[in-house]
Amino acid sequence: MTDSNSDEFDPTAPDQREIGREMVDDSTGLGSVMAHVYRGEIDRVGTWRERLDETTTWAVTLMAAILTWAFSSPDNPHYILLVGILIVTIFLGIEARRYRDYDVFRSRARVIQENLFANALDPSQGVESHDWRAELSRDYRRPTLKVSSHEALANRLRRVYLALLSVLLVAWVFRITAFAPRQDWLTTAEIARIPGIAVVAVVGVFYVVLLGVTFWPHERHAKGEFREGDPDDWKENR
C-alpha cells in the first residue's frame, strides 16, 4: 500500500481508496487509529443529537405551558400565544445552529461508513468517493460547516417546528374567534393600540415566510443516512 505520508500520495489510487479490505485482512496501525476515530465521531454525533432533542423538549414544554394558560380563562390575553410563537421561533433558530454543528460530525461518520466499513464488508462494490481520504483529511485540517443556515432551518421546520408553530397558529385563531364569540374577531385580535387587521397581517406574512423557507426548492447539502426501500427484502434474508 502506498505510504500516505509520501508527497506522491494519490487518494484516488485503488490501494488508497479501498483500504477497508486491507484493514480486515491485515492488522494495520491505520486500522486501529480509524477505529478510534470512528468511535469518537459517533460519540460526538450522539452528543449533538442529545442537544437537538433538548432544544425540542424545551420548546414543547414551554408551548404546552403557554397553551394551558392562554385557555385557562377568557380574560387572559390572546397575545400570549403570539409570544409563544416568538419563543418557539427562537428555539428554532437555536436548533438550526446546533443542527449545522451536528451535521459536521454526522457527515464524517457517514464518509467512514460508506468508504471504509462498507468496502471492508463487500469490496466488490468499491467505494462511494475515490478521494474520500483526502476529503476527510481536509475536513480534519480545516473543519467546515456542510449545510447552510437556510437548509438547517428548512430541515428543522420539516422535522419538528412547522408542526409546533402550526399548533400555536390554530390555537391563536381559535382563541380570537370561537373562544370569544361575542366580539368581532378583528377586534379581539387587537393588541393595545395596534389594530387587529395589522396583527393578523403580520402573523400571516410570518407564516408565509415559514412555508417558503420550508418548501422552497433548493440543493440539499446535508449527507443523508436513510433511503426508502422494501423492508421485506432485508427481513426475508434474516
Walkthrough of the structure:
The structure is a single chain. With 238 residues, the chain is mostly helical. The chain has one domain (26-215). Helices cover 68% and strands 0% of the residues. The chain is built from nine helices and no strands. The chain has helices at 14-17, 20-25, 29-70, 79-121, 132-141, 149-176, 185-188, 196-215, 231-235. Helix 3 (29-70) packs parallel to helix 6 (149-176) and helix 4 runs antiparallel to helix 6. It starts with 13 loop residues before the first helix and ends with a helix. The mean pLDDT is 84.
Q: In terms of topology, how is this protein built?
A:
Layout (H helix, E strand, L loop, with lengths): L13 H4 L2 H6 L3 H42 L8 H43 L10 H10 L7 H28 L8 H4 L7 H20 L15 H5 L3
Give a summary of the structure in a few sentences.
Residues 1-10 have a biased composition (Acidic residues). Keywords: Membrane, Transmembrane, Transmembrane helix. The chain has 238 residues and is an all-alpha fold.
Order of helices and strands: HHHHHHHHH
Proportion of beta-strand residues: under 5%
Biggest sheet descriptor = none
Q: Which shape, going by the Cα principal axes? A: elongated
Low-confidence stretches: none
- Kindly state the percentage of residues in helix: 55-70%
Query: Mean pLDDT, as a whole number?
Result: 84
- Structural class, from secondary structure content? mainly alpha
Query: Number of domains in the coordinates?
Result: 1
Q: State the total count of DSSP E strands.
A: 0
- Counted by DSSP, the helix tally is 9
User: Termini, distance in Å?
Assistant: 36 Å
Alpha-carbon Rg, integer: 25 Å
Keywords: Membrane, Transmembrane, Transmembrane helix
Organism: Natronorubrum halalkaliphilum
Transmembrane segments: 78-96, 160-180, 192-216
Protein name: DUF2270 domain-containing protein
